[in-house]
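Exercise 3.2. Students should predict the tertiary structure of the chain below and write it as structure tokens, then compare their answer with the key that follows.

Predict this chain's 3D structure.
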Amino acid sequence: MMYQETQRSLTQSITSIPPYFYVLLLVLGWNELWTVLTNPLYLFTFLIGIGFIYIIYTLNLQGPVIQISKNVASIILFSIYF
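Answer key:
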């Protein structure tokens, strides 16, 4: 019983991004988008990043990537502060 109520509350709390937000994002970020599209270095870096994201998503490696990122961040922060 408790499990079903928890699932129901989680399902009800998930919302989607409103469609007007995408238009607002495009209008406000037009100059950054244009910079990425016209600069070959930014464009190549963006395409490589999209490729890595696609590979990680396709192979379902989000969990290990997040865990490795947390470990690296903790090591870096530890070396900075201590």
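Discussion points: The CA atoms of residues 74 and 80 lie 10 Å apart. The mean pLDDT is 87.
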